[in-house]
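Sat 14:20. Reprocessing the chain from the morning session after the first attempt stalled halfway. Input below, unchanged.
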Amino acid sequence: TVVERVKRYIAENIGQSLNRDELAAHFYLNPDYLSRIFKKETGQLLSDYLLAERIRLSKDLLAKTDLPVSTVAVTVGYANFSHYAKIFKQATGLTPQEYRKSSS
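Finished this time. Tokens:
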């Protein structure tokens, strides 16, 4: 399905600056239509899914690698480190550094 292709594309390109409009353009769809079908099939907003995937990958990289946190931020698609740290803390309740310490 289109949603499965979108999810696969997100997984393969998570390090890029992805948003609804860029995803819709890549798949030649209207952004509103893409959002609707994504929500209908997954029960989740496209933006929430993208955020959850970035946080999931961040947690994995923080727990299993020694990459600097700034490199993890860039790897998961955040150019601004402080924004990444804020988003990560909102999602997990911990800073990236605290998460790394707690998972080791």
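The CA atoms of residues 29 and 52 lie 23 Å apart.
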